[in-house]
């Protein structure tokens, strides 16, 4: 083992970059849909050993001495994000004639940029590096800090955070209700990196003890949470509609009536055996294939379809400002429609996807002939605020459109005053790739964090109902067409507030930072 690790430590140049890249790419197998988290017990120890050897010349300034560590972390991140996000390019192939030119920028450019966060993680870790378990704590601190920054820097994109790799099943998800994603990311890297101690055997017993204690605590807490009986306060009968509309037809005026008829047909069918008539029907993001301002008859049709007391929450494109020539503004929205066909509430998407739903620096890019890439025939404006929607049974549903649900803090703000989390999305842009599965897993974790059921409607999947502990009640597979009927019990809220979870997560990072700093100073004093 020492010979093997020695070879990794002594790697340099392109060989070091290649091994770092491969280790990062391998770690993606721990994410959905593969959920093979054991690979991280290989990937992260390899990263530790690579960083052991990532030292500059003693005569170099401190900045130059950190360059090998940054390069190692960057190559690890580039492999991780390239292997984990390649499916983004699928969206550009939906209209390949117009957007295929942008494929390299999406598939390679996004991982290239995100890899800088892991380069930063390696630099931070290397500042506190030591030859013992302290370096494991340093790496956990570095990654915990980097993943936290990824949540909000440059509008944020915390997709496939390392902590999700440690939560493939509900039993292992429950601790996030205490640590939040900030703490879970750091704890996951610490656990995944502990096998690196096997080579030198220094602090091996301590590492094994910490591994056993942390895993036992995680599993034990998960078992306790799942076994505890939760008494429902209220309940609601829901229907989730998955129309599986072909995106090549989505904005085709000649087939809009057929798409709308499909939605009406699935929504209006009799309840499945053993289920009551749904009180709430949920349609996916931008499911209505036209503007209500152009087709007021559609609201009449919805009123005819909905029975007394039923409500529909549907994803639509909402227009403000009159005609397009007069400067109309368009919003990616959800609307609540009552049994009279009246829009009783609306919530606009606040956190838009750059280049997908709006164009940053639009004037500059439009002069270059570059427009938005995937979302539809118009740019969207961001909504000003989000609020819960009142639904039948006196319940309040917090709506999140598409990838808004991947942001823990964003979801927690409105979930705190709600009884249900609603997520509408259109992952059809990405086909049957890992993307929809990764998106669903992150939505699933939001249910656990906030202690609320999740109702999720996706155009082509994964539509699902998830309970407040992250267990899937029912779901529709990718590309399936149909509906889910379910009786959803509603009870309780988050175990801890979002603020407390954030504090706990930052405290966990701080503990790792203090441990790494202490052991680093100790080693320096011992050497001197």
Explain the overall architecture.
The chain folds into two domains: 2-227 and 500-527, no CATH class; 238-485, Nitrilase/N-carbamoyl-D-aminoacid amidohydrolase, CATH 3.60.110.10. With 528 residues, the protein is an alpha/beta fold. The strands form two sheets. A six-stranded mixed beta sheet has the order 5-4-3-2-1-12, with helices on one face. It has a six-stranded mixed beta sheet with strand order 6-7-8-9-10-11, covered by helices on one side. The protein is globular and about 80 Å long. The chain has helices spanning 2-10, 13-27, 40-52, 62-85, 96-99, 103-127, 133-150, 170-173, 176-193, 197-200, 204-227, 256-268, 296-305, 362-367, 408-415, 434-450, 498-527, and strands at 234-242, 280-282, 311-320, 329-337, 343-348, 389-391, 395-401, 420-425, 454-458, 463-466, 472-476, 482-490. The chain has 17 helices and twelve strands.
Using brief descriptors, characterize the structure shown.
12 strands; alpha/beta; Nitrilase/N-carbamoyl-D-aminoacid amidohydrolase; 528 residues; 6-stranded mixed sheet; 2 domains; 14% strand
Helix proportion range: 40-55%
Average pLDDT value?
90
Question: Which runs of at least 5 residues are low in confidence (pLDDT < 50)?
Answer: none
Structural domains: how many: 2
Write the H/E string, N to C. Answer: HHHHHHHHHHHEHEHEEEHEEHEHEEEEH
Summarize it.
With 528 residues, this protein is of the alpha/beta class. It is built from 17 helices and 12 strands. Helix content is 46%, strand content 14%.
